[in-house]
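Appendix B, record 7
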Amino acid sequence: MLHAYAAQPVRRGREREGDDPVRLLALVVARTARLAARYMAAGFVHGVLNSDNINVTGESFDYGPWRFAPTWDPGFTAAYFDHQGLYAFGRQPEAIHWDVMQLAVSLRTIAESDPLIAALDGFGPAYQAEVGAAILWRLGVRPRDPDTDRALVQATERAPDQRGRYRPVLLRCVRRRASRGL
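Structure tokens (predicted):
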């Protein structure tokens, strides 16, 4: 039954190569890396990113105590009960990756470990590419070359405002674009 479940999202997609459980995991890795990147670029804090709140489609739900971060504070939490910062703003990519690892554990019953691990290893590079693209989009900047893009993204993340707060520059761009319907 798990094998049939693993095959469904793959068969509905355009790419049909490879072992269905491994291909499913690779698709989920790419989709959730994009989700994590978009959350970070928007300054969105989900609040409770446990594995039952992430879908294989790369969507999340059950937002509970969500908020937008007022500044780029990796330790900012939206959940009043999250005293340890398990679901803190800066830990969202890690939390989503952990959620995807739980899917890999369940797929281990129908697939070999090595290809599943290889698919999981794609999360970091996929996230880095997606967060860079999302931040550039938020800034209204077209991608140029990877080195220039990476330097701009890093400078934006480190830029304080006039009061020395960490990286509200990007959040202002987010709000400006949202107010214009972009």
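Remarks on this record: The CA atoms of residues 136 and 142 lie 7 Å apart. The mean pLDDT is 81.
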